[in-house]
Amino acid sequence: MIAKILFRETVHGVLNYVFGKEGSIILGYPNTCSEFGLSPEFFTNVLHFQGQRHATENRYVHITINLPHGERLDDTTFYQLGKDYMAEMGLGNQPFCVVLHEDTKHQHIHLVSTVVTESASLISMFNSYRRSMATQAYLEKRYGLLPSPQTRQKQHRELPIYRFPEFQFKPDDSNGTRFYIQDVMNGLLQKHKVRSFAELKQLARPYHIIVNTMTHESGRVGVAYGIDNQKKYKTQFINGSTVHPKLSGPKLVAIFEKNSKSKLLAMHKKRLEKQWMTTLKLFKSIRQEDLPDVLKSYQNIDCELSYGKNRQLNELIIYDKSGYVFLASEISSQMDFIHHPQLEDDVNGTTCLDENGKQFLLETRKLIKNAFYEAYLQANKSDRSLSEFVITKNLRDLLPHIAGSERYSFLNHYMSQDKGKNLLKVLKTEFEGTRRELHKTESRKEMKTLEDRVSLFKNVLEANVFDATKSLSFNLLQGLGLKYVGGKVFFSNSKAHSVELLIEDYKMPEVGSSYISTGSINQNVKVLETLTETGTSKPSDLNATSLFLPLLLPELYESMNPEYQKQFEALSLRAYLRMAEQFNLPLEKSPVDYIRLFNAKGFYFEKKVGKVYLRSLYSKNETNIPLSTKTQAYLKSSTDLDAVLAAQMETVNISNENGQMNLKNLWVSYLIERGVYGRAAYMMVYEGVRPNLHREALEYHKKNGLREKIHAESQQKINTQQAAILRKSVYSFSSLLSGKYKEEVFNGFRDELTDYTNKKGLFR
To answer: Which residues of 117-173 form beta strands (DSSP E)?
Structure first.
């Protein structure tokens, strides 16, 4: 099923369409004086007067729920599904109507209500789109419907639903025409930053929508819309304000002026001009027909060629990533790109790279550099730095990474094959020089990084971030990705660079610590820079991994001084909150779900002086952080918030009694939510770590691939145990034959009744 939610300022037009559609069936009016006995006119008045109690623009809500093609529900079940949807969205106590339409391939219902309560307060619809997606998934499972796509971007959504021939738009079908035009035009204005009616007409043409304008004597611009599919189907024109108030002439003119006066407009044009010039430097000649493919492949620019009557190229229309639609003629006042001598309009013209040009050599060098970076990311980084890795690799080692890149395919496609030249030969020529240059560049970067981290090491010690009475130099250096040998500091994975530094009372631990990943080291560096206010890191640079640093570097963070520990807990908790809110979206149908999903992970909320704060059971101190203003309003929109907050500790305490309130349990949960199912499954199977996730969340990830990973790890563990048992059995069998092996296992053929080894004299 697919649910679509729209907010309106008025309700009469929507209800006229919903009730007036031929063949519509009114399933009910929940939360009104009579659930089934009202007239449409009476319900319209009820909803109108309740919505007018607040001055907000988006006071009414119009929801459509479409079933997949081929699926049907009876009226009673569909009515109950509509009520369940409204309840999950927080509108279950509002007056609303449920009306069934069957004029399309998709059986669907319309739900119309208001977000204004009887007390004139507003129901918060914060995050309504994602809540609707989560509610869809919940109801699909409950009613046994086919699942809908998890991602539906407005920019790429399908326009609009297809109708049966007997229900096709007719000249007098003003409502169907109006809503089609409204849907398409709203989508176009969201995707593009339109600057004129001419541009809007061009964008609407593929959808068979005709945009007509006229200017009145007062200067006011009027607009009307119609449909003409050029196949004997044409509608009457509808005034823009009738289609939608925001699609009227004056409203659109205001939008055009706003987009045209943007300060970013000149910057986008300058960027496109630079991309154009770079493209022209790469090619000797470009055939006009190949221009869209060249710009898309090389610069990721979507464009379209516009021809005149004689098939002469008039213009190039560019659909920029910024949302603006540009003509090539307006990008630069100094150069005519359309009539540039490098563009060939001849049918027999060719698109050919300038193989002796500087830009071509830059592209080949970039190919080699990117291949080095990709290969290093896949290599073992614990025993060498990038500069050392670069100097030890040859072209043959990098060829799989080079040949698999899109840029290689692009260059190879447009490269001429004259005189036996090919891209591989050029790469061989440029490889050695590129490798030496990359080695020098990365060496300088690594040396600068090493110096910065040594400076951070000193700052942390001077600021007494950690208990000075404990010898923590080794742990602190390890957390920064460094090691200390003979009065010098090196990277932990390389001795290529060093900084002289004398550390007193430096002690190596008796037991070597495990390898710390690069990501954890980088996060630890950002935390320490933020706490000491040195470096360039800011609190917003921290991610959820910072919360787990006490698990990854226990000796270090257990000795953190209380003042800094409180700061760290607040910073890391805020960083985790940002990430966790994103993780919860697929399952969050309401404010109550928001709270329950956090409770299952070991977090709880408390209300103080009208504000809601988040707290953690993993915190040593009573650390809490206030939620954002929007999130607080979202939670307070729940009518039973106080009851939910009072009952949340039962869930948290149960998990705590089961021994799950440990950072390791939360770490497994974090891996699962990140989609790293393999590592999470390994810890669950071999270490017995249970994730701190809500039952619905765990089931959601099991369906997405976690179940298969757990099964594979369990099978591997069983095979490993069987191999160990078999090995011991072989040793035991060998001991019976030769007596060389003293290790034995249980022998099912020998017990107290049949073991005669101690009674040799009885049967001689």
So the answer is: none
d(Cα 530, Cα 568) in Å, to the nearest integer? 9
Residue with tokens 């002469």: 312
Three-state secondary-structure class, residue 416: coil
Q: Would you tell me the crossing angle of helices 128-143 and 75-88 to the nearest 10 degrees?
A: 140
What pLDDT does 513 receive? Answer: 57
Helix (H) / strand (E) element for 7: namely strand 2-8
CA distance 743 to 734: 10
| Contact status, residue 459 vs residue 534, Cβ threshold 8 Å | yes
- For 110-157, the pLDDT digits (tens) are 999 999 998 888 888 877 887 888 888 888 888 888 776 554 443 444
| Helices 358-378 & 395-403 angle (0-180, nearest 10) | 100
Q: What is the mean pLDDT of the chain?
A: 85
Q: What is the DSSP letter of 288?
A: G
Closest Cα to residue 224, out of 234, 211, 205? 211
Q: Provide CB contacts within 8 A for 685, sequence distance 6+.
A: 710, 713, 714, 717
d(CA 520, CA 516): 7
Amino acid at 702: K
Distance CA 414, CA 283 (A): 9
Average the pLDDT over 579-588 and give the result: 89
Q: What is the pLDDT of residues 212-248, one digit of tens each?
A: 999 888 888 999 998 886 666 677 888 888 888 889 9
Q: What pLDDT sits at residue 636? A: 82
> C-alpha distances in angstroms, 182 versus 49, 128, 161?
26, 21, 13
For residue 173, which amino acid is it? D
Amino acid found at 294:
V
Q: What is the pLDDT of residue 740?
A: 46
How crowded is residue 104: how many other Cβ atoms within 10 Å of its Cβ? 16
Burial 87-101 (b: 16+ CB within 10 A, else e): ebbbbbebbbbbbbb
Positive or negative, the CA dihedral 291, 292, 297, 301 is: positive
CA gap 111, 78 in Å, rounded: 12
What is each CA distance from 435 to 363, 429, 431, in whole angstroms?
14, 11, 6
Asked if pLDDT for residue 553 goes beyond 50, the answer is yes
Chain mean position to CA 500 = 44
**Closest C-alpha among 295, 184, 171 to residue 233:** 171
Distance CA 662, CA 681 (A): 17
Letter string b/e over residues 614-647, b meaning 16 or more CB atoms within 10 A of that residue's CB = bbbbbbeeebbeebeeebbebbebbeebeebbee
For residues 303 and 321, what is the distance between their CA atoms, to the nearest angstrom? Answer: 11
- Distance from C-alpha of 65 to C-alpha of 82, rounded to nearest angstrom: 8
Token duo for residue 711: 């099964």
**Paired residues of 319 in beta bridges:** 302, 325
- The two beta strands, 302-307 and 499-500, are unpaired
What secondary structure does DSSP assign to 598-629, as a single string?
HHHTTEEEEEETTEEEEEETT-SS--EEEPPH
Indicate the SS3 state at residue 589: coil
CA distance 559 to 326: 59
With cut-offs at 50, 70 and 90, classify the pLDDT of residue 200: very high
**What is the distance between the alpha carbons of residues 313 and 348, in angstroms, rounded to a whole number?**
16
**In this structure, is the dihedral angle defined by the CA atoms of residues 359, 361, 362 and 366, taken in order, positive or negative?**
positive
- The Cβ of residue 422 has, within 10 Å, a number of other Cβ atoms equal to 11
To the nearest 5 percent, what fractions of the chain are helix, strand and coil?
A: 50, 15, 35
Would you say 60 and 113 are in contact if contact means Cβ atoms under 8 Å apart?
yes
